[in-house]
């Protein structure tokens, strides 16, 4: 039981941290797409669209394939679904880290580290890490 509980803490930390990071990171990224300006705190709304999309994909395709592979009615067991979710969380945090590394690198190159100017990196780069 302890390993499941311990990994649950990691997942909870990731889950709580992602919206905060996306807003903080988004305030210092380029928020314009053509003439449209995206507010930094609205990028997290892409999560809703992503959940609707992935729930449909999961129900219609992934469960059907998993049923054939595992022979179980629900496709994956609960523990397998938890493991897959934790793995996806690791991928999302890795994407967030890569965007942050690139943002800081550009900030240093352009001497924007201690200035309240946006780094010329599109806010759309946050969508993969927000979508989890």
From TrEMBL:
<keyword id="KW-0472">Membrane</keyword>
<dbReference type="InterPro" id="IPR000109">
    <property type="entry name" value="POT_fam"/>
</dbReference>
<keyword id="KW-0812">Transmembrane</keyword>
<feature type="transmembrane region" description="Helical">
    <location>
        <begin position="82"/>
        <end position="101"/>
    </location>
</feature>
<protein>
    <submittedName>
        <fullName>Uncharacterized protein</fullName>
    </submittedName>
</protein>
<dbReference type="GO" id="GO:0022857">
    <property type="term" value="F:transmembrane transporter activity"/>
</dbReference>
<comment type="similarity">
    <text>Belongs to the major facilitator superfamily. Proton-dependent oligopeptide transporter (POT/PTR) (TC 2.A.17) family.</text>
</comment>
<dbReference type="Pfam" id="PF00854">
    <property type="entry name" value="PTR2"/>
</dbReference>
<dbReference type="GO" id="GO:0016020">
    <property type="term" value="C:membrane"/>
</dbReference>
<dbReference type="InterPro" id="IPR036259">
    <property type="entry name" value="MFS_trans_sf"/>
</dbReference>
<keyword id="KW-1133">Transmembrane helix</keyword>
């Amino acid at each position: 039981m302890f390993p499941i509980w311990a990994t649950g803490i990691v997942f909870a930390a990731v889950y709580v941290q992602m919206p905060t990071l996306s807003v903080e990171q988004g305030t210092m990224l380029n928020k314009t797409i053509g003439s449209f300006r995206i507010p930094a705190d609205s990028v997290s709304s892409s999560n809703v669209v992503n959940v609707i999309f992935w729930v449909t994909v999961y129900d219609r395709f992934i469960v059907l394939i998993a049923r054939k592979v595992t022979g179980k009615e629900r496709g994956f067991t609960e523990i397998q679904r938890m493991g897959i979710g934790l793995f996806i969380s690791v991928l999302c945090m890795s994407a967030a880290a890569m965007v942050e590394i690139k943002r800081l690198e550009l900030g240093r190159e352009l001497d924007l580290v201690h200035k309240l100017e946006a780094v010329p990196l599109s806010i759309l780069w946050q969508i993969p890490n927000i979508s989890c």
